[in-house]
Each structure stands twice: as C-alpha cells, then as structure tokens.
Amino acid sequence: MPRTAEDLTGRRFGMLTVTGYAGLQQQKRQKISAWNCVCDCGNTCVVPGYLLKQGRRKSCGCIRETGQGLVGKRFGKLTVESEDTQNRTTLHKVICRCDCGNRVSVATRDLKSGKTKDCGCVRAEKSGRKSDQNRIQRERIQERAADFHEGKLSGADILRVWCDAWIGAVLPNVIKETTIRMYTETLERHIIPFLGDVPLRELSPEVLDQWIKVLRKKPYAGRRVMTEGTLRNTFSILSGCLRDAQKAGLIEQNPCQNFNWDTKTKNLWEGREWLDESQIARLEPYLTAYRDEEGYPLGIAYELVLYTGLTISEAVVLRWEDVDLIGNRLFVRRFAVERRTMSDGGSESVYGIEAASGRRRREVPLPEKLCAKLSHIRRVYGGEEKDYIIHSENNMPVRLDRLRSALMRRGRNSGVGDVTPRMLRDSYAMKAVRAGATSDVLAELMGFASPQQVVRRYMPRMAEDKRTLVDRMFSENWSEHTAESQLTDESKKYISRNTY
To answer: What is the count of structural domains for the chain?
Structure first.
C-alpha cells in the first residue's frame, strides 16, 4: 500500500466492509488505490478507495433495482417496458415508451434521479416554439425598419416599437451583427418586459429609478442578483437606444443623461467584499476536496486563484509548461473566453482560448505551499508539458460555468455563504495590500493595465468625499494631530508605507 494512502481496512461504508488492500488500479493516466470489500449480502468486490470515501459505492450492486423490477413504472412521460438487451455500455439501461409514441433506451440512474423524463420531444417542442418566436421577431423588426427608412414613425413613440426600429434600421450601420444580437437579447430580457409599453416621452428619471431597483432584486443567471457591471451595461444599451430616439425627434431629451443613481461601492476596502483568514480556513477544505469522477483534484483551480491572484479564466488554461516548480513561479500566457452565440434555438455559451498580451502576460511567484501541492499532483497523476493542469476527461480545460457553480455550492456548504472566483482573487489582493504592496506592484502581479485600477478598487480612501476633505483642511479646530487621530490603523499603516 502506498505510504500516502489511508488504510481503510476494517472500516464500513454503507453495506460494504473493507477486508484489505487490493493494490493499484489503472484508470486512464492515473493509478487508484483499490480495496477488497465484503457486502452484507455475502458477495465480495473490489472498489476504488475514492468511491468509498465519497459515498458513491455502498454495496456490491445488490441494492440496485433490476430492470425487470422497473417494468410498468412511470417516470415523467416515460413508461418502462423491458430491459435493454442490446445495451453495450457499462450503464444499466431499460427500454421506455414515451407518451408521444417513441421508444428510447435510458439509463436507470437517470430515470430514478429525475434527470430524464421524456424521449426529447419536450425539448424539441420548446425549440420549435422558440424558432417560431424568433422568426416572428425577425419579421416584425424588418417591417418596422422598413417603416423607419420610409419616414413612417407612427407608433414608434412607444419604447417597444422604437426598439424594433432601432435594431433593424439604426444599429446595422454602426455595430457588428454579433453585437446586435447581444443588444437584442438584453432588450428582450431586461428592458422590454418592464418598460416596453411606456411612451418614450414618459420615460423620466423616476421611472428609470424604479426599473433599476427591480433589476437589482431580480434573480439573474444562477446568481442571486444582477452584478453592478451587468446593470451598467444594460443601462448603457437603453441610453444608446434613447439617444438615437432623440436624434430621430421622438423625444426632446434623453432621460438617461446625467441620471444619478445610487451605485454600490466598488472600493473593496470599504465594502469588505473579500474573505478573511477565518473564512478561508473554513472554506479551503471544501475546495481541496473537489475532484472529478476519477479522483483528479479540480479544486487546485480555486487555490491558484486564491494564492496567485489569477482570474479563473487564466487558471483554467494553465499548462504544465507554464509552471516552473523549481523556480517557484508561473507564467500567464493565455486565458479562456466565453462567447454567446445566437441561433434559432436561442443563445449558447461557447468557450475559446486567447493569447494574453500587455500587462496581462506576466510572471507570478508561487507560494511554497502551492508549489508543493502542484508538485504532488504532477507526481501522482502525471501530465505532459502541453497538458492542462485543470482538465476534463478529454484533456480539455474544464468549463468556467462548472467551476463557478461548484465554488458557489462549496461556499454554502462550508457556512461562508455565496463565494465567487472574483472574491478569491480579491482576497489575494487585499492580503497583498495589508502586507505592504504598492499599487504598482499589485498591478503587475494581477495583470491590471493601470495602477489606478488597483487604487480605486483595493486601496483605502483617506476621506469620505471632497467636501469632507476641504472642511477638514480649513476648519479652525483642525490640526495634524486631530487628523491623525481620526485615521484607522490600516490607513496609518498605508500612509507610513507610502511616505518617503
């Protein structure tokens, strides 16, 4: 038995009792410790240790319901007819009849978990309805664009109607087709449902303020609420739409101009939107425990973000050739990008890889702890120079949405709450600031284009606002001694580090 392997002899997992070590099993590029087990039913079996510890194997297979026992049972729109005698996979499958008349072979685990409820007819039906809706939308936009070109603006004083004319007649002359699709999707999701029936001349700052409050509370893309950046982008699209409406003479003034809204702070020092040491200590065991089906430690992606300040899109495409384990450093040479493509069936996320340039292409020192962990992973699981460190079964980078959702679940399970990759990266930055990093050094470490971005986001502010600063400067009761007494300990340390 390897020295690093935990001895499971005598331990019980569900109906299985471990009787001894069975040696190493080869699973693709990895060698997995296997254990001899005896089941309560009397059968013996050999089970990989990680399946036992993760609770994914609890018997020799005797507790699985046979296909014959499922015959006649109903799962959604599917009714089980018989076992699949032509099945050549390792999964247990049965033949099911769908309410639409089709017969399909379905894995029993997908039936019992509720993952599969029909033969695919429901999705096809929804896709067909979506295609019809998109076709009708395109025809409507083309019709209103033609009216706009002919000078027919009747009805365009309603936002919904003007948006169609704007998309079809104005935007094609100034932006690319892919950007038009993104604008269209944003309008359909976040603007038209709330403001579509409002006359353009009735769009006031008060109406916009109510709309923004609704967007801030609306669930968005699996997150709890829309981020401030997405909210600003949505507002910018509406502003551009109304700007062109003003040029067309439909309104006298764009209500989005000079609109004052209550923006959330972007300075993390004030907002404390990062993880402290106690939160990291609670969260880290849940991160390191994240593994794929074969036991490969995917949680190293989160540790790379937390201990090097990389973005998750940079960490996920790191290759072994980018890591110098002897010199304790890594090189950022590329990053993953997520693009949304539009089709008749709707939108779809497509991932690609782009080369890093400018200050984003950089060298980052590795902490000893992280370097030792990377060395251990490569020694145990192997990996060629061109292989991705965080890879899926086909040796391609793991999808970003998979890593984000897994991090969110682990944050909640640890008791820390909702955690995003951005929070891990911000925690690295705030730790650097507290350790004495200047804005220039931190910008180089994290790949920011300008130190000013670091100052605005991470550095403590010395005064609440300009009015407060001037009042303090020229107040009769003000002195250097009283000003110093009002500073926080962190601010005093920051001033002392940056005083020469």
So the answer is: 5
End-to-end CA distance of the chain: 59
Q: Which domain holds residue 479?
A: 466-497
Q: Provide the pLDDT for residue 156.
A: 76
pLDDT score at 476:
59
Instruction: Count Cα atoms within 13 angstroms, Cβ side, for 176.
Output: 2
Q: Which residues pair with 302 in a beta bridge?
A: none
Task: Examine the domain organization and report whether 260 and 161 are in the same domain.
Answer: yes
Contact 75, 116 (CB under 8 A): yes
SS3 content of the chain, % helix, strand, coil (to 5): 45, 20, 35
| Burial environment of residue 85 by CB neighbours within 10 A (0 to 12, 13 to 18, 19 or more) | exposed
457 part of a folded domain: no
Q: Are residues 355 and 411 in the same domain?
A: yes
Per-residue pLDDT tens over the stretch 270-318: 455 688 899 999 999 999 999 887 788 999 999 999 999 999 999 999 9
Q: Which residues contact 493 (CB under 8 A, 6 or more apart)?
A: 434, 436
Q: Whose CA is closest to 388, among 452, 321, 435, 433?
A: 321
What pTM value is reported for the model? Answer: 0.51
Q: Pick the last residue of a domain from 201, 231, 264.
A: 264
Token reading at 131: 């295609």
Question: What gap in Å lies between CA 109 and CA 87, rounded to an integer?
Answer: 15
Strand 103-107 versus strand 93-98 pairing type: antiparallel
How far from 22 is each of 8, 12, 77, CA to CA, in Å? 11, 16, 44
Residue at which a domain ends, from 210, 232, 264: 264
Tell me the per-residue pLDDT of 410-459, one tens digit each, with 9 for 90 and over. 999 999 998 999 999 999 998 998 888 888 999 999 999 888 888 878 87
% of the chain residues with pLDDT over 90: 31
Residue type, 23: G
* 458 belongs to a structural domain: no
